[in-house]
Each structure stands twice: as C-alpha cells, then as structure tokens.
Amino acid sequence: MPHDGDFFGLLKERGYSFGADVAPGSSLPEGFRPTEGTTILAVNYDRGVLIAGDRRATAGNAVIHDRADKVLSIDDHSVLAISGSPAIAYEIARVLEHTFQYYRRSQLQELSLEGKLRRVSRLIRENLPMTLQGIGAVIPIFAVYDLSDGPEGKGKIFFYDALGAQFECADFATTGSGSPAIRGALYYQNRWSGRPLASMGLEESVGLVLRLLETAAEYDTATGGTDRRAAIFPTVKTISREGIRDIPAEEIARVYGEQVER
Length: 262
Description:
By secondary structure, this protein is α+β, with helices and mostly antiparallel strands.
C-alpha cells in the first residue's frame, strides 16, 4: 500500500527501529571492547571540499582492521565521514542513503540541504541510548556541495556532537581520538601559513591531509598511518560541483612519496 509519510515513518511501519532502549542498570559485559574508528577530517579547497580518514579500527588496545572505510558517499553531492562505532555509523549511512533516495523518488526532487542536516541529527539523536551505554557513539562529519548557494554552488562542512547538535565549519573540521593532534595545525595553516585552505589546489590539499593523518597516527595509537609496503593508504574523497570523486590509491601513493615521505 502507498505510504504518505517520510522514510523514517515507513521504516517504523515495517517494524524497523533505529537505535536501542537503555535497559535499567545496564552496563557493558566485563572485558567487552566495542570496535571503534578514528581519525577523520574535512577541509575546503579551491573547488569544493576534501574529506579524508585513516583506515584503522580498534577494540580497546587491539587493532581489529587496518582497511576500514570511514569516508562514505551518501548521494551525488554528500559524504559522511565517521569516527566512533563503525557498526552504528555504517547503519546510519545506509539509512541516510535510502532516506535521500526515497525522498527523491517520492517527491520528484532532491531533499534540501536543511532537510539532509535534520535527518543526520535525528539519526544521531536516536542513537543516544547506545551512546549512553558506551557501546555505539558516532561523531561524524557531514560534507556537501550545495548547488543552490550562488551561481556556482559552494562546498560546506558540518560536524555533530553525540546528541545530534549540528555546527557548520567555515574552513575545516576534524574529529576522532587523533583530532587534538592536528586541529591546531589546521588552524595555523589556514590563518598564518600564507596559504589558506580554500586557496589550495587538489594535490596540495591531498598532501596536507596526508601529513596531518601521519601526525595523528604518530600521537594516537587508534589512528592508522600509511603503509606503502602493504598498500594501506587513507581514504580521500572530494566533493565539487561535478560531484564526488574518489582519489585513487595510486595518486595518493604518488603524493605521499613527493610531499610526506621526503
């Protein structure tokens, strides 16, 4: 039968409920270590937004996986970068992707930027019970290219707290356990280096984020660095007026050799 509500309403009608209730007096089993992932960042560059993340997923002090993808395409001009619990974050990304598709197909138009931001906030807020249990916190960065902002459009960066509050960043955002090691470097680069982030070309921006992720990995054991021998490189995507582009590993390896490993 046809459904008149939004995609969230359709999911609940079919018996799907995102998140979980907190059981009274509940706590994690002794010795349980949820899988987590860090570090992510997004920066403006001269054609839009560049988003990057390391590849390591950890559970306590153990490295669970060194090829985790933390930068996820949601639609043609939206990317969600995740820090925290990959299991919950991947579910949020899947629900968002289908939410945007459902709106586009049912309303025959794209969901507005404000609508997208509200839906990200809602999913994070509905995950609060898991966050309070210490098992499923997700702190994402949501980057978009807003085609409706001016004649050429504009790249925009948003980050969220664990309660779903949304903040727009002027030039960059970073989160995850390795972010304190690089936030100051981003501020310095943008304000005093003589090369503001938004003036950088693609290759220069890729080199910058690779150096920053290498710095985060040096000071944070939960952040994975680059391993050329094993062909493990950060995930890097760009969003511009033309859409989303995945930077190939070969290109990342070349820039890493020229600008980082020198």
